[in-house]
Every structure is written in C-alpha cells, then in structure tokens.
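Predict both folds.
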Amino acid sequence: MVYVETASGGTRYGDDAFMRFSAVAQIVATRVHDLLISISEHEAETVSTELELARALQSSLTVDALPEVAGLQAAAYRLAGTDTCSDYYDIVATRTKKVLAVVAKVEADPLTRLRYLGELRAAFRYAALYQEAPHTFLRALNWLLLNNAGNSIHLMMAEVDPSNGLVQFCIAGRRVHTGRISPNGDGELIPLAGAPPVGAERGAAYELRQMTLDEGQSLLIVTDGAKTTLNRDGSALGIGGAEEAVCDGLGDTPAHVLRDFAADLTDYVDGGAHPEDLTVALVRRD
C-alpha cells in the first residue's frame, strides 16, 4: 500500500503519478528490507559471539575434578543453555576436612556476566581458603558487587561437615534451590528465605541456616533453569521434576547418579528446549 500526502490540500494525483510513486516505493522497500535483514544477521552474529565467549570463560572456570573428603562424595552437572550462559558451580575441600559448595545463576548484561563469573570464582576460592561462613561470604560479595543497573547473582553456598552431617548454608535470591534426599529416594525441598540476590540491595541481611544430613542422605542444589527446560510437548521439567529424576538414580555414587540424570535429561529435551543453563550439584554423606 502506498499513502501519499502533501502540504497542499488542492493537489490531485492521477494514475501516472501513482504508478511512479509505487515504483519508487518498491525500490525503497526492497532496500529497507535488505538493510533490516543485514542488521538482524549482524545482531545474531554478535549474540552468537558473546555466547561463545561466555561459554569459553565458563568452561575455563569449571573445576576439572571435585575434592575427595572422607565421609563425603560430591558431583555436579550442568546442561548448557542454548540462549544464555549464566550458571557457575564450585566444590572445594577446606583445611579442616569439610566441603564448601557454591551454585549460582548470574543475571546481568553480557559483559557484566563475564566479569561476575570471574569475580565469583575468585571470591569463593578466597572464602574457602580462609574458611569464611556462608553468610559472611554473601555479605562481602554483596558489598563488592552492589550496583543500580539490575545486575545480580542468585546463589547458594553451603559448608558440609562429614563428622556430624551438619550443613551450614545461605541462599541469596530465588533462582537456586536446595533440598535433602534420603537413601530411599524421599526428597525434601527447603523453602527459600526470601533474601535478595547478591548485588541488588545495600546491607542485605543474609542469615546462616542449618540442616543435618544423616548417613546416606544427600544435599541437592539445583538452579531454576529446570523451569525452562521443556520436552517436545512443552512440559517443563521444573525443580520438583529435577529432584525426582535425581531421586530415581539414588543407590549409586553421586557421580553415577548425575551421569544417569544427564542421560535422562538429554532424552527429555530431545525435540524440546533448554534456553537457560541448568546446574545440579549433589553432596552425599557416607
């Protein structure tokens, strides 16, 4: 459709004029269409490059081997999202033979996300070296990353003592969930405390929480990428579905449990979608 308007209301256009207008409009429309296609392709290439860079950094920050501590077994798995790179996990042993674990989901613009992944790893390793309590770590990290741009980190940090099964933990935000799983496959998700994500609120009061793992029980940590992990029918796996899938594999080592979980998840998303990272960490007390 061609719409022509002039400042002079008395001007009338004949068929010849409209034919010329139509020809010019067709040429302009083709050029505009080509320009929009070019812009779209450039933006897609930029997003692809940013994602590849983020994946490379994420991979370099991921631990090659998890620690071996008497009385505890740990494993972790991450399904990379097709659209975003956001998750981080780390599990280390302390000098007092405890295990420290962190699982996080970063919400930030692409460049800030890269910086946050690196700063999170450095801060966590420092906290592990000096055996900082989880809530102390979150408060310090919140001071370090506080901003007004909407960038933040949802995370859980936990310290597990194999001698008595005591788990001291702290959760920031709403996108990392935790639970306790019994050897018979019964699971119990722990309610979130409602604390803001790290970097979002000045002076946020992150409180230390506790639970106990009996022998054979496991600590489960999972990011909410499970909520956007869909099968071919469009059904979301969800946090509960991830927990159930992990519970189905109990009875073997955490590494084998998550290996089976990964295989089942690959089948689940076949023909579906997984735009966001999904991370699962499992720490079992022997």
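Second protein follows, with its predicted structure tokens after the sequence.
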Amino acid sequence: MATTTEIVPTKKTWKRPGIIWPFILMVWPAVSLILAILLYAIIALVFSTTQQPTSGGEADLFDEESTNPVRVTLKILHFIVGAGAVALGPISFIVGLVLLIVNLNKK
C-alpha cells in the first residue's frame, strides 16, 4: 500500500527573528528622541521655578539657585538619551536597513 504524506504550507510572517532586529534597530532612534523630548517636558514642568525676580543690586544678577540633586540627575539622563539618539541613530538605522535587505533577499 502506498501512503501519501500531506505537505502543509507554512505561513510566512514578518515575525521571523531575522526581521525583528532590523526593525528594532531602525525604530529605536526615533523612539528615544521622542523619549528625550518627553523627558525634557517633564523636567521643565516638575522643576519649574515660580520665583519672582527680586529687585536688588548686582549680587542678585549672579546669584544661582540651589541645585537639586534629582534635577541634576534627570538632566544628565536627558543628555545621555538625547545624545545617544542623535549620535548612534543614523548608524543604527543604516545597519538595520542593511540587515533587513539582506534578510528579505535571503531565500
């Protein structure tokens, strides 16, 4: 007796591991830049100074407000996120695009 085996076609989706990483590499610069803008808005909203300017002598012009360690830490984090998005973003996008093209042409 001859037995026949049925071949079930597999469904190709974009969720293959070879395609997910290029998309992540291409999208993260825009997401981190948006995150940096939101972080800037939150820092400006939470730590905004509502002090009225004082009329005084020359010493008031150079009087700095006391530095809040949380604000300084958040500003450093904001700089790192923004600088990373700008500096590494184009490189990451190009690498992701090349990987995507290579993976899509691979059959």
